[in-house]
Amino acid sequence: MLALVIGVLDGIDGKLARLKAQTTKLGKKEHDLDYFVETSWWMALAYHFHATGQIRYAYVIFLAFFAFHVLERMAKKAVQRRIGRNLDDFAPFDRLVRIVAGRRNIYTWLFTFFLVIGASATGFIWLCFWGMASAVIHIFRALQIGFAGQDQVAPTSTSS
User: Fold this and answer.
1) Model's pTM, two decimal places?
2) Are the C-beta atoms of 49 and 124 separated by less than 8 Å?
3) Under 8 Å between Cβ of 156 and 92
4) 118-127 LR contacts (CB < 8 Å, sep 24+)
5) Which of 19, 64, 82, 103 has the least C-beta neighbours within 10 A?
């Protein structure tokens, strides 16, 4: 429940900051805190599922999830440096992927669904693999953009 409440409040706060085009240094640092808090949730769940014997390899699954996420962040930063904008905004395919790609809200809702149906261990496995699948797509797209010629990665107009 705490994750859902924090997700909603953080979403409202972020939306207001973007709408008003007002950010602060503290607001920019909030992303690092969010990442730490989010990672600690999934790490705590890995501990719980391992300690209770529900998922024998919970730590391995979590570490793979974490490693893929780190690689994904690196790939996205490389794209940002290369083309001067977010990977999620590069092409229609990337904007579509953004809707369903692994991130805190998707993970929270996915885990909540499995929690409600009484399959929280399965939910943990799903969220980890959803995150890894999302990372693979983003890493692949970053590699495509990185190897494309400069004329193929020139920023395009967002107006139609």
Assistant:
1) 0.76
2) yes
3) no
4) 120/49, 121/49, 121/54, 121/55, 124/42, 124/45, 124/46, 124/49, 124/55, 124/58, 124/61, 125/55, 125/61, 127/42, 127/65, 127/102
5) 19
